[in-house]
Amino acid sequence: MKKLNRAIIERNAFSPETIYRDFMIDQWLNVLLSNRTIFTEDEATAIKNKINQLKQNILEKSHFKEAKQYQIQQAYNEFKHFVILGHPGSGKTTISKWLAMNMAKQCLGEANLLSDCTEKFPIFIPIWKYVDQMKHTQNEQKKSLLQFIYENPTLNSTFFTPDEQNDLSSLVLSSLMQGNVLIIFEGLDEVPAHIDRSDLMKEINALLERGIDYDMNTGKLSYSIYEQKEIHGTKFPNLGNRFIITSRIEGNYFEDINFSIPRLTIENMSNDALKLFCRSYMKCINDTSMKREKRGSDQLYEDIAQNKDIFQLAINPQLASVIAAIYNQLEDKLPKKRIDLYEIAIEKMIERLVHLSIDDLGLTVTMFWSILQEIADFLHSKNLHHDSPIWNWPIDALLRFYSKEIVVDAVATQLKFKTTLNHDPRMIVYIAQNSDWLRLILALYGGYENYHSQESISEYMELSQFLALSDIERAPFIFYYQELWDRDDTAYSMAVRAEKISSSKHWNDQPLFDQDKIYKESFLTNQILELLRKKKPPTDLLEGLRKKISDEKLSVSDEMDVFLALIVLEDFDLINTAIKTKAEIFRKSFTNRIEQLIYVLKDHIARCSSSIADYFMSIYNNLTTNELLSTLNFSDYCKIYLALVANSGGLPVDTKSLAEAMDNDENRWNFYAEYYAFKLTGATDDFRYSIAVIADEFHTSGKVDQILEPFLRINDVVQMYQPIRAYTWVTDTFTFKPSNEVLPTVQRWFTSNHTHQIKKLAALLLAEAKHVFESAIDHLIDLLSNDNDQMRYRAQRIFQHPERNPSEPSKRASVIGEKTLMKILENISIREYLPRIRAYLNSFFYDVCWDDPQVFQNLYESITKLRESSLHDETKLFFLNRIKFTNNHTWNALLRAAESPLHPSYVEELLFSTMTLTHHDQITDDNWLDFARILSITDTSQFKEQFYFTRTDVDIIRFIIDQIFAVTDFTDETYFAILESKLISEITVKVEELSQKNYVEIKHLAHCNFFAAINYNQTILNMLNNISLTIVVMDILIRWLIQKMTSFKDIGNSMFSCMIVDCLLSLVSACVQKEDYLYRKTTNSSTFNKVQMIKLLERMLNYHPYFPARGNAFILLAAMDHSNHQVMINAMNALLDENVVKEYSVIGVPLIHLSPNEFIDDLLKSLKNESAIKTYEILKILTEFALNEKIDAHSKSKIINYLAKEIGQLKSKKPVNYYYTDIRIPFTTTLENELYKAWIKIQGLSGKTQYSLSVKD
C-alpha cells in the first residue's frame, strides 16, 4: 500500500475522493504500476491480479457476469445483427465506416480485414437521413425504411446520374431479395428529439425480425408476415441480410430494439492503444514538421500520463485527438488543468472559424472571446423571453444586452445611428415630436424599453386568481400547478412569484422614445441622418427605396431593412408585388422579422390600457363638437382599439365613465358591458363582491335586457383574463342574488325572449338555480351537443356525468315533479339520440332519491300507459332499471309493482336495478330475498336477458384467448357456434338460476355485467405480450367479430350481445395495436369485404352503448387502408364529441395509413369550431401527423400558416379546461399555448434549432 501511495504522489494525482475509483480504471492502474523504480514486474502483476479479483467479486455480488470482449472482426463473425454502443467520440462512426469499407473491398476482390466473411453488399445509412428526407418528401404517404433502403441507396448524392441511381436501386433491391446486403444504420441517437421514434423502432425491428417479400404487381418489397426463427444468428451469422445499428449509450435510444439483438459497447482506449496512437501521431508530426527538431516517439504519451486529469480524457479517441493537436500547437506542452485545455481548444476553434469576420468588426480574437463569455453568462443567468410566439429565440434581448452592456469601442462604432443621436439632442427632440419619423426609427433601430408587460399581466392574473380560490376550489388545478411550481407548497411559491411581479411591474409606465435604448443598426443610416439634419419628411426615402428593392447586390439583411421601411412608409402595393418575386426562404425570414417587431410592440400597447379610457373620452368630445372628423362610428372605433389592447395582452379597461357620458343607448350599454368585464376579470380584488354589485346595478337600472346582449358578447374577453375558474362565468351574475330579485327577470327571458341563445341560457340558469323543469328539458338536451364547452358542460351537470358514480343522491323525485321526470323518460324512449347523449339522459336517474312512493306510483302508471301505446315500436321504455338509490318506502312500492301480473319485463327491469342497488349497498340481504321470491315465480323465458356473465370483461377476453390460441384447425364452419356455446356454459349463469343466488353472488354479478374494467386496453395488451400472433388467428378473430357485429342492432340488443361485441372489438383492437400489418394483410385481401367491415365499425362507433366498444371501433377503422377519407373524418368527429372515448384517439390516429393530406382541409375546418376542447384534440392529431411525417410539405405548410395566424387572436385565449369536460383529467391551459406548442412541433423544431439555418447574401 505504501508503494501505491508513493506512485500516486509522484504522479501528483492524490485525491481521497477518487483514489479507490481510480484503481478500477485499468489504464490509470497500468500507468501507476509501470514505474519500475517502485514496483518490480512481479509486484505489478500481483497487484493487477488482486484488483481483477476484487472487481470479479463485486460483479458476482451484484449478480452480474464478466462481459465478454470482442475485436470488431470477431463480433462480425459471430453475430448476424448487433448494436454498437459508445460514448461521444468513442469511435462508433469510425468502426461503421471501417466495416463498410472493408466489406466493399472484399466485394471488389481487394485485400481487406474481413476476408473470411461472406460477401455482402455494404450500405452505410445515417439514420437521420431517413427521418430528414421524410420531412421534405412530396409523396402522399411516407416511405417505409425498407423502401428507403433500395430507393435511396445514394442518399440523393449528386455524384450519380439518374440512370446510375436507378441501376443501383435495382441492384440493392435484388440483393435484398437474395439476402446479400450488409446495412449499417449510423447514429440512432441523432434522430431529432422532437421526432417520435416509435414508428422508426417498429421499422427497424421489422427488418430484424421478418423476411422480405416481393410484390409482383407493384414491383416493391414489403415485410413478410412470417418471423425469422433466429435473428441474433450465432449459428449461421452470414446467412441472409445483416443489420448493424450504432447509437450513443446516453439516452437509451436503443432500448426498444429487439431484446435478443446483442449490444456491444466500445471500450475506452487501453494503455497500449493510447501508446500506439501517440507514437503514430508523433511520427506524423516528425515526418511533416520542417522547423522543429525531431521528438521522441513516446514523448506525447509520457506527458499525458504525467497528468491524471488529462490522461482520463485521453482514453476517449476523439478527445485524444484534441489533446494531441493542442500539444502540437503549444509546442510540446500540455495545460495542467482540464479547464485550461477546454479554453485553449475552444479558442483555437473560434480562431479558425471566425478569423475573417472578427477582422471586419475590428475585434481581436481575445476581445471576441471575452464578448462571447459575457453573452454566455447573460444567457445562463437570465430567464430570457422569446422574441415572439413564432420566433423562439431571444434575439431581441441579446441585441439589447450587446448594445448596452458590452463596453467595447467596436460596438459603439457599429451602432452609428445611436452614437450620432447621443451627440445631437435636437435631433432626438425632432424624432420624438414627429410621429412619421418615430415609427420608422422604432422599426429599424429600436429606442424603447421592452418590459414584456403582456406576459407579466397574464401571469399575474393567473396567479392571483388561483390564489383567490378556496382550498376546495383549487383542488382540480393543484396537480397541474404542482408540476410548474412546487410540490411541497404550491400556493406559497405562486404567491411569492405574484408578489415579485406586482412589485416590479411597469404596466402603467408611458412608452417613451429613448435613444439609449437603440440596439440595432441599418445600412440606411447615412440617408436617414441626412434627412433628419435637414428636417425633411421620411417619405423622401421612398424613391431611393423603390430602386433598391430590385438591387441584387444587397445582402439579405439590407433587403429586409428596405422592405421594412416601405411597410412603415405604407407603400403596400410595391411590397405586395415585390415580395412575390423573392425566394421562399426570404419570405419566411421577413415574416419572422415582422412577427418579432409586432410582438415587441405589444408591450407598449399593453401599457396603454390604463390611459385608453381617457383617450376615448377626448376622441368622443372631439367627435361630439365636430362630427366630420371621422366617418367611423365611435363605438366601432372603440372596439378596434379595445380589441388591439386585448390582443396585445393589456389590462381590462374601466369604461364606466365613458358609459355614463354616452348619449347613444347602444354605446352606453356596450361600454357598461366592457365595464362589467373589467370588474369580473381580476382587475378588482373580490370577484364575488363585484358580481353582487353588478347584480344590484342590473336590478335597479331596469335595463337588464339592454345590457344582457353586449354582456354576452364579451364572454370571450372574460375568459381571456380569467383562465382559472372554480365555477363562475359571466352569466353567473344572476345566480348570486336572492331568487326573488333576479329569477323573475331570468324567467321573463325564458318565456318572452325569442332569441334562441338567450332562451337556452335562461333555461340553464333557472335549472341551476333551482332544479330541472319540464319546459326547459328540450333546450337543455340541445345544449348537450353544443360546441360551447362551458354551456355544454353546465347542461351535462344538470343531468349528470355518466362516468360519475355518486355516493349520495342529489335529486328528489317529489321536488322535480312527475311531469319533468316523465318528459325525460319520453325523450329517452321516443327520440333517437346517439349513445353519448343518451348516456347523460340515463344518468339523470342514477341519484334521483325515490323518496315519495306516491310520486313513484303515479309515474309508474304513466309509464305503463306510454308503454302500451308504443307496443308496435321496437324501442323499449325502461324505467325501473336505472335506480341506484332507494329507501324502505319506495323499495316496498317497487316490490308491489313487481308482484302485479302486467308484464314480466317489469321484473326484469327491477332485476337490473336490484343488482345495481346491491353493488351500491342500498338494499339488505333480506331485501334481496324478498325480490328473489318474486323472481322465482316469474316466467323468465320472456326476459330479454337469458344469460349473465359470472366473470368480468377482462376474464371473458382471457377465456377467448385461451380457447382460440389453443385451436389449430379453424376450418369447421360450426366453430363459432361451438365456441359461443362453450362460453355460455362455462362463464355465464342462466336467468332462471338467479333466484337461487345469495346476496354476495348477486353483488359479484352486478360488478361483472354493469361495470367496465380499469385500464381495460392496457390489460389486454399485457395478456398478449407472451403470445405470438399469426395471420390465421387474426383472420379467425375478425370473422367472428364481423359475425357478431352483423347481428347487432342499433337499439334493443341484449346485454350479453353487447358484451360479446365489446370484448371482441377490444381484443381485435389490442391485436392490431400489437401487429397492425397482420390486420391490414387480412382486410386488404381480395376476398375480404372491406365495405361491409367499414359500415359495421361505423355502426359500432355511433350506436354501441359501451364506450370501450366505440373507442376500439375507431382504432380498427383507423388501422384499415381506406379509399375514402370521409370515413375517417366522420369517425374523428364522432370520437371527439365524446370525452370518455377521446383516449382512444391517441392510439388510433398513429395507425392511420390513408394519406392525411386528403383530409387536412376538413380537420382545419373543424379547428374553427367554437369548442376549445375539440380544437385542442384536433391539434394533437395534426401534430401527430406532422411528427410522423404522414403529410407532405404542402399540407404541413397549410397547418403552420393556420396556426401562425391564430396565435395571438382573441379566441385563442379561451381556456382548454378539462375540469369542465372530463372529471378524471384536471388540467388547464389556453388555446394560444396549445397552438404555439403545435406550431413548434409541426415546424420540426426543438429548443433553439429553429433559426440555425444561415441565409447567404
Automatic annotation (TrEMBL):
It comes from Rotaria sordida. InterPro entries: ARM-type_fold (IPR016024), P-loop_NTPase (IPR027417). This is NACHT domain-containing protein.
